[in-house]
Amino acid sequence: MAANEKRKLLITGASGHLGRRVVELLLETQAGSLVAATRQPEKLKDLAARGVEVRFADFDDPDSLNRAFTGVERMLFISTNEIARPGQKLIQHLNAIAAAEKAGVESVVYTSGPFRKPDNPYLLARADIDTEQALAQSRLGWTVLRHNWYTDLLIPRLAKAAATGKFMTTEGDSGAAYVTREDCARADAAVLVSAGFHNEVLDITGPAIVPNAELAAIVSRVAGRPVKHLVTTPDTYKSGLVFAGVAETLQEIMTSSDVAIAQGYLAVTSTAVRDLTGRAPQSVEEFLSVHREVLLAKILKS
Ligand SMILES: NC(=O)c1ccc[n+]([C@@H]2O[C@H](COP(=O)([O-])OP(=O)(O)OC[C@H]3O[C@@H](n4cnc5c(N)ncnc54)[C@H](OP(=O)(O)O)[C@@H]3O)[C@@H](O)[C@H]2O)c1
After folding, report:
1. Closest to 215 measured CA to CA, from 274, 155, 301, 273
2. Tens digit of pLDDT for each residue in 179-237?
3. 0.90 surpassed by pTM
4. Structural domains of the chain ordered from first start
5. Are 113 and 146 in contact (CB under 8 A)?
6. Which residues contact 274 (CB under 8 A, 6 or more apart)?
7. Contact predicate 268/178, CB 8 Å
8. Is 233 in the pocket of ligand 1 (CB under 6 A)?
9. Residue 88 alpha carbon to ligand 1 centre in Å
10. Nearest residue to 58 via CA among 77, 79, 44, 37
11. Distance, CA 102 to ligand 1 centroid (Å)?
12. Residue 183, class by beta-carbon neighbours within 10 Å (0-12 exposed, 13-18 middle, 19+ buried)?
């Protein structure tokens, strides 16, 4: 590569919340020659106008991946949000790994989950565990970034808790080290541009493990309403989701994630966000306070 030639960095799933933000961050720092891979190129016209090369890539379509990954040096491999077809997420991920090998990609940064224990009850944990293993067995250089649970996803649930005064969870006194998508995007971008990581696993977490009882106290403080933490069985928890009209495919998955969090499967913290980005990760209370207007609006709608 000529000295003035920039490395080709590819981001998969670039129309999603996380992928788009990583591309924006890399554009700000002019980190490399950016390729945004997506099934929905029409959604990325604004990024194309800013010099990003947009390529079609569908993890269900290996030929599209072979074309999309050509000439790429490093790629951020964002796990797909496939849930409707059991087992398909792993097939998609194995397609992506095979195509990256075929294209001669030097290094792959994979966004995984904090699911190191194989007995993890979270129904989507298996796909991440098996993807990590496939990467380790591949010819690729790899870094695994285990994103903890996104703080952003708490807003609708905590709004409902504040509206009803009840925060229902399954039994267990643990919690997760909730991390914001923004902190994850910054950490992902930092690792993608760095040549300093070789076959490593990093936990990308918020500053502390937040037990369920504390979440109830936090939302109570931020919303200015009393919120009581109540414990129930997984079956009753799932019935609540059915009653609330949650889609059938999501009911078991959401119940299993609640069990995993309450029982401590996501209870891990690290200093990676600060180390990688130079910024302390945002706490749940800080995040909710910054987004208080959104939280309050959702409470009114609940
Ligand atoms: N840590 C957590 O709390 C948590 C929670 C939920 C999900 N996640 C995982 O984190 C990922 C990123 O989160 P997010 O908030 O950015 O999700 P999101 O906005 O729903 O985006 C989902 C991503 O999946 C990609 N995708 C889906 N099917 C695909 C396919 N067949 N081929 C290629 N890409 C496909 C989409 O890419 P295009 O549409 O651009 O092709 C998109 O980037 C999710 O996909 C999920 O695996 C983590």
Report:
1. 155
2. 999 999 999 999 999 988 999 999 999 999 999 999 999 999 999 999 999 999 999 99
3. yes
4. 8-148+179-204 (3.40.50.720)
5. yes
6. 280, 281
7. no
8. no
9. 14
10. 37
11. 23
12. buried
Q: Which two tokens stand for residue 182?
A: 């923004």
Find tokens 């298996």 and name the residue: 126
> What six digits make up the tokens of 27?
């554009």
Match 């995993």 to its residue by tokens.
260
Percent of the chain scoring above 70 in pLDDT: 98
Residue 13 CB–ligand 1 contact under 6 Å: yes
The CA-atom distances, in angstroms, between 56 and each of 68, 76, 84, 188, 256 are 6, 15, 22, 21, 33
Is the shortest distance between the CB of 132 and ligand 1 below 6 Å? no
Ligand 1, atom 46, lies closest to the CA of: 81
Instruction: Give me the long-range contacts of 77-82 (CB less than 8 A, separation at least 24).
Output: 77/12, 77/108, 77/109, 77/110, 77/111, 78/11, 78/12, 78/13, 78/16, 78/18, 78/19, 78/111, 79/13, 79/110, 79/111, 79/112, 79/113, 79/127, 79/128, 79/131, 80/13, 81/16
**Partners of residue 156 on adjacent β-strands:** none
Nearest to residue 139, comparing CAs of 100, 190, 92, 183? 100
Q: DSSP string covering 213-251, please? A: HHHHHHHHHHHTS--EEEEE-HHHHHHHHHHTT--HHHH
Cβ–Cβ under 8 Å, residues 53 and 33: yes
How would you class 133 by CB atoms within 10 Å of its CB: exposed for 0-12, middle for 13-18, buried for 19 or more?
exposed
Backbone angles phi, psi at 186, to 5 degrees: -65, -40
Q: What is the pLDDT of residues 46-100, one digit of tens each?
A: 999 999 999 999 999 999 999 999 999 999 999 999 999 989 999 999 999 999 9
